[in-house]
Amino acid sequence: MLANIGVAAAVENGFVSSYENGSFKPHAKATRAGVVTVILKQ
Protein backbone atom coordinates (compact mmCIF):
# COMPACT_ATOMS: atom_id res chain seq x y z
CA MET A 1 0.00 0.00 0.00
CA LEU A 2 1.12 3.54 -0.70
CA ALA A 3 0.29 4.59 2.87
CA ASN A 4 2.87 2.14 4.21
CA ILE A 5 5.62 4.16 2.53
CA GLY A 6 4.44 7.37 4.20
CA VAL A 7 4.12 5.74 7.60
CA ALA A 8 7.56 4.14 7.29
CA ALA A 9 9.08 7.51 6.38
CA ALA A 10 7.36 9.22 9.32
CA VAL A 11 8.67 6.56 11.72
CA GLU A 12 12.21 6.68 10.28
CA ASN A 13 12.30 10.47 10.63
CA GLY A 14 11.02 10.37 14.22
CA PHE A 15 7.67 12.09 13.61
CA VAL A 16 5.65 9.15 14.93
CA SER A 17 6.42 5.98 16.82
CA SER A 18 4.79 2.64 17.45
CA TYR A 19 3.31 1.37 20.67
CA GLU A 20 5.59 -0.31 23.22
CA ASN A 21 4.86 -3.73 21.71
CA GLY A 22 5.88 -2.54 18.23
CA SER A 23 2.36 -2.35 16.83
CA PHE A 24 0.99 0.59 14.88
CA LYS A 25 -2.73 1.41 14.95
CA PRO A 26 -3.55 3.61 11.96
CA HIS A 27 -7.28 3.69 12.71
CA ALA A 28 -6.86 4.82 16.33
CA LYS A 29 -7.99 8.36 17.06
CA ALA A 30 -5.25 10.96 17.31
CA THR A 31 -4.85 12.65 20.68
CA ARG A 32 -4.11 16.32 21.21
CA ALA A 33 -0.80 15.37 22.80
CA GLY A 34 0.11 13.24 19.80
CA VAL A 35 -0.69 15.98 17.32
CA VAL A 36 1.28 18.55 19.32
CA THR A 37 4.24 16.15 19.43
CA VAL A 38 4.24 15.78 15.64
CA ILE A 39 3.96 19.54 15.15
CA LEU A 40 6.83 20.28 17.53
CA LYS A 41 9.10 17.68 15.88
CA GLN A 42 8.96 19.50 12.54
Walk me through the structure.
This protein has 42 residues and is mainly α. The protein has one domain (1-18, 30-42). Helix content is 48%, strand content 0%. The chain has two helices and no strands. The chain has helices at residues 2-12, 32-40. The longest helix is centred in the N-terminal third of the chain and has 11 residues, at 2-12. It is globular and about 25 Å long. The mean pLDDT is 82.
Helix content: 40-55%
Give the termini separation: 25 Å
Low-confidence segments, ≥5 residues, pLDDT <50? none
Individual helix count: 2
- Major β-sheet annotation: none
| Number of strand elements | 0
Attribute tags:
48% helix; single chain; 2 helices; SLH_dom; globular; 42 residues; mainly alpha
Care to give the gist of this entry?
Helices cover 48% and strands 0% of the residues.
Topology:
Elements: H1 2-12, H2 32-40
